[in-house]
Amino acid sequence: MKDIFAGLIGFGTIGTGVIKLLRENEELIRKRLGARLVIKKIADVDIETPRSIPVEREQLTTDVNEILMDKDISIVVELVGGCTHAKTFVLDAIRNGKHVVTANKALIATYGNEIFDAADDGKVNIGFEASVGGTIPIIKTLKESLAGNNIESIFGIMNGTCNYILTKMTSEGRDFASVLKDAQDLGFAEADPTYDIEGVDTAHKLAIVLSLSYGKRVELDSIYREGISEINQQDIEFAGELGYTIKLLAIAIRRGETIEARIHPTMIPFDHILASVNGNYNAFHLVGDASDSVFLHGQGAGMMPTASAVVGDMIDISRDIIAGIWRRVPLRSYKKEGIKDIKLLAMDDVKTNYYLRFAAVDRPGVLSAISGILGSYNIGISSVIQKEKKLERNAVPLVLTTYKAREKDVQMALKEIDKLDVVLGKTTLLRIEDDTLR
After folding, report:
1. Tens digits of per-residue pLDDT, 4-34?
2. Which residues is 112 bridged to in the sheet?
3. One domain, residues 248 and 325
4. Contact 296, 290 (CB under 8 A)
5. Which secondary structure element, helix H or strand E, spans residue 408, and what is its range?
């Protein structure tokens, strides 16, 4: 029986999971593949610390070139993370004619254009299913299952840390800081959580999804992004009273030849398919022009879910090796000549619904003044909640939701409203995705 040799660069949590899965399901994989998938070498800066899965000492090395230069190794699995060293390892592997599997979303989102071009020139394959959504097969779905569809929209919960925090804040009535600390203690959040809670991680994933959905290159910095660090209990409670829950959503909507792409905390109705996605789970709601609604849900991170996606890519590439082909499906789902730079709709031109919370002085005429300014920018009010509970300086919370309005108009209106002497502090704004608000 044929052996297909792979080398593993990075023996941390995910790397350990890959070894565990290959070992425990060795016979199953052999039957499905018709060959043995063998990790010949494992490279890491630390080969002394024991892992939960023991390996033979001769498999370990601190010299990555023992993998990159080994002619027997056909597949290089990059799991070191980051961009600097990982990019070098991946490009060197490609130059040496090796296929690559990676879980590195930052690398693909930032340097995917360069890496994919190198892979095309070198006639090798790149597997990156694990870079978005962990065990959820979103990349394979876009590249293969929905290849005959125009993708009309994608709404995704792409970061388990944020979803865990918002779920706990909603279900337990706790503040952001205390839930974040719990998430860090449980290993769901890093010691420095900025990457997750400010939406950077989600932006990397959305950039990859955009390129697969629309066959175009996208600049990461052109995607509008807000995080969840400003969400508080008051807004969660008002959202619930209005029939909404708050999720950090990555949103992509096709607008002809232009794509609307944004990441921000979003209020969605309780009966929305994404509203019940809780804890550290990820989910994707896609709409194709032929498929209609498609929903994918599962673990977006973790040792074994991510290892599952990595090993799946290794098996896919091994099948191509056995068949004597270097790649069956284009890396971005489109042939190279069909790929162009993506044109994103400016955030100022986005039209959606809005939740606005003011700290308003408790006196007659306040609502009239605020609604007058909103009306002057063609912003219609859908609902009003005014609480008698006093805040500082004799203010009360006043909440409005709007019909669809243009982002630029809302921002300009709020600049005027926030200057009113009857409005204290900066207005809180959250966007609403609710098709019933026309």
Report:
1. 999 999 999 999 999 999 999 999 999 999 9
2. none
3. no
4. no
5. helix 407-417
In a domain, 385, yes or no: yes
Selecting among 105, 205, 216, 247, the annotated active-site residue is 205
Closest alpha carbon to 280 in 436, 180, 392, 158? 158
E strands within 320-380? 340-341, 351-361
What whole-number distance in Å separates Cα of residue 243 and Cα of residue 189? 29
Q: Are residues 321 and 270 located together in one domain of the fold?
A: no
What is the DSSP code (8-state) at residue 11? -
Q: How many structural domains comprise the chain?
A: 3
DSSP letter, residue 331: T
Q: Which amino acid is at 160?
A: G
Residue 328 is inside which H or E element, if any?
none
Q: Known catalytic residue: 205?
A: yes
State which residues form the domain around 57.
Answer: 2-135+303-338
Judge if pTM exceeds 0.70: yes
Sign of the dihedral defined by the CA atoms of residues 210, 214, 215, 219, in that order: negative
Query: Could you tell me if residue 438 is inside a domain?
Result: no
Element (H, E) at 372: helix 366-376
Place of tokens 């190198």: 118
High-pLDDT (> 70) share of the chain, %:
98
Classify 230 in phi/psi space as left (phi over 0), alpha (psi -120 to 50) or beta: alpha
